[in-house]
Design brief:
Blueprint: E1 2-10, E2 13-16, E3 26-27, H1 40-50, E4 55-60, H2 61-65, H3 71-80, E5 85-89, E6 105-110, E7 125-131, E8 134-135, H4 139-143, E9 151-156, H5 168-177, E10 182-186, H6 192-200, E11 205-208, H7 210-213
Parallel strand pairs: 1-4, 1-11, 4-5, 5-6, 6-7, 7-9, 9-10, 10-11
Antiparallel strand pairs: 1-2, 2-3, 7-8
């Protein structure tokens, strides 16, 4: 199972995401044992000192909320690390996938940001977004697996940064019904035992932030 660090960007800084309450996210260095700064360069350097990660998930919260964006900052980051892969969640819609992107930029399409469900010939990762345990977005995204690409994130926003544990029930049900898809767990992962349980379930990857910054998962666990 692949471990993918998450970097949440808001107002020019990396922030600590908690339960999807985006208005109250604080700079990450206030919660982190890995970095004393919250600029993206310092956070990237801290993650790479911790472990030789090959993939990162970047959430542009301003863009997702329609309040500016970090397009330039993300472009510079991708250029600085051409050998790494970046999953970029910036509120893009399916129609935006026609726009050319750097080779190390994989678009994340979140159901909460889409006016309606649909398919695309382009490579992307779908994020099935759940707020307060309820599906967020066109119901067709959640009922019609024929619309899904190969990789699907199960994003339980109310568990992010909560130390509540992953939504094992939902992940087990989805992976059991759709064995041909690669599912990614996001939200609530607390420790190495959670990672082991997810791996045993056949989950393809896990998105992590809080557990890494607080030292709850160490490099040896990964």
């Amino acid at each position: 199972m692949q471990i993918i660090p998450v970097i949440d960007l808001k107002d020019g800084l990396v922030v600590h995401a908690v339960r999807g309450d985006r208005q109250h996210y604080r700079p990450i260095h206030l919660e982190s044992a890995l970095t004393r700064r919250s600029d993206i360069d310092s956070v990237m350097a801290a993650f790479l000192r911790f472990h030789a990660f090959q993939t990162f998930y970047i959430a542009d919260l301003n863009a997702i909320c329609g309040d500016g964006d970090h397009t330039g900052l993300i472009r510079e980051l991708l250029a600085a690390y051409p050998h790494l892969d970046f999953w970029i969640d910036n509120g893009s819609r399916l129609a935006d996938l026609d726009t050319p992107r750097p080779k190390n930029h994989t678009a994340v399409i979140g159901t909460e940001s889409q006016p309606r469900a649909g398919g695309s010939r382009h490579d992307y990762i779908l994020s099935l977004d759940y707020k307060l345990e309820q599906a967020s977005g066109d119901p067709a995204w959640f009922s019609d697996a024929g619309l899904w690409p190969e990789r699907v994130i199960v994003m339980t926003l109310s568990r992010i940064g909560s130390h509540a544990g992953p939504d094992f029930e939902k992940l087990r049900a989805l992976s059991g019904r759709h064995p041909g898809k690669q599912f990614v767990a996001a939200g609530g992962i607390r420790h190495a035992e959670d990672l082991s349980k997810l791996a045993d379930m056949g989950i393809h990857a896990a998105l992590l932030a809080t557990a890494l910054h607080r030292g709850l998962i160490c490099a040896a666990d990964i």
